[in-house]
């Protein structure tokens, strides 16, 4: 073996096929934009979360005036909601995709169905969602007030480090703003839907569930997108500090 062959550096093993190389970021906005896009599930995930309640509302509107039905309109509507959630899950399984976002629709639907079936009141289907939005509104405000915003925990959990972001002042500041934006849909849903629930307006509850669901979330995400596209907050040596070349298209076009 020649000296040149002996001293030639060993070739680094390439990444296994199918594995993405670790993402590297220079700016806080770039990092947050990447993680939020993975966490929220995109348009399909948002549609899957709303569809069971659409099925419930449509079935209720059709069946509530019908006579001679073998089961009550409430149970028929609950069956439609649960069936739609199950169908969504089966489609994901057939496509060999993750059930993560379908489960986010199935669990709330199942809980709502159990409550409504026990009380016998159709409006109780919407009670868990109303309370959930009220809770998230309070948590969002509280976490912003103490300097540990909710969005930071969501992003941290997505990458397996729930608290590492707290050491980066740029991330804390940015996630505080994003938490405030995401709190707007929570507050709006709670303020609008609670009076409808208390007065028993089931159809209006169903309509508000859809209108104030993913469309309102998309509006909030649009605002977030504008915020993240304009900012250039440097990462400050946190556990997420992975500089990327300045020529990266994601930075140039952010």
Give a concise summary.
The chain has 254 residues and is mainly α. It has 11 helices and no strands.
Count of helices? 11
Mean pLDDT: 76
Low-confidence stretches: 2-22, 237-254
What kind of sheet is the major sheet? Answer: none
Instruction: Encode the helix/strand succession as letters.
Output: HHHHHHHHHHH
Number of domains: 1
Helix content: 55-70%
Span from first to last CA?
Answer: 51 Å
Beta-strand content: under 5%
The Cα radius of gyration reads 23 Å
Report the structural category.
mainly alpha
Shape: elongated
The number of E-state strands comes to 0
Kindly describe this structure.
- The longest helix is centred in the last third of the chain and has 30 residues, at 169-198.
- The protein is elongated.
- The chain is mainly alpha-helical and 254 residues long.
- Helix 4 packs antiparallel against helix 5 (100-119), helix 6 (127-145) packs antiparallel against helix 8 (169-198) and helix 8 (169-198) packs antiparallel against helix 9.
- It has helices at 3-7, 28-40, 42-63, 73-94, 100-119, 127-145, 150-158, 169-198, 202-211, 214-230, 249-253.
- It has one domain.
- Helix content is 68%, strand content 0%.
């Amino acid at each position: 073996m020649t000296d040149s062959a002996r001293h030639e550096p060993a070739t680094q093993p390439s990444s296994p096929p199918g594995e993405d190389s670790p993402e590297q970021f220079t700016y806080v906005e770039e990092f947050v934009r990447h993680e939020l896009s993975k966490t929220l599930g995109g348009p399909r995930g948002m549609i899957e979360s709303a569809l069971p309640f659409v099925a419930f509302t449509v079935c209720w509107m059709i069946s509530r005036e019908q006579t001679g039905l073998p089961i009550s309109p409430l149970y028929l509507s609950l069956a439609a909601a649960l069936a739609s959630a199950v169908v969504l899950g089966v489609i994901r399984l057939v496509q060999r995709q993750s059930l993560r976002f379908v489960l986010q629709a199935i669990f709330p639907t199942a809980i709502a169905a159990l409550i409504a079936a026990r009380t016998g009141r159709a409006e109780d289907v919407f009670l868990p969602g109303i309370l959930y939005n009220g809770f998230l509104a309070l948590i969002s405000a509280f976490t912003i007030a103490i300097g540990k915003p909710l969005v930071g925990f969501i992003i941290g959990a997505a990458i397996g480090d729930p608290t590492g972001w707290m050491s980066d002042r740029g991330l804390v500041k940015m996630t505080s703003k994003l938490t405030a934006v995401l709190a707007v849909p929570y507050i709006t849903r709670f303020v609008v839907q609670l009076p409808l629930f208390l007065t028993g307006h089931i159809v209006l509850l169903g309509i508000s569930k859809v209108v104030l669901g993913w469309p309102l979330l998309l509006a909030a995400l649009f605002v977030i997108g504008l915020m993240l596209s304009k900012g250039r907050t440097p990462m400050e040596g946190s556990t997420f500090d992975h500089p990327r070349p300045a020529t990266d298209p994601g930075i140039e076009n952010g």
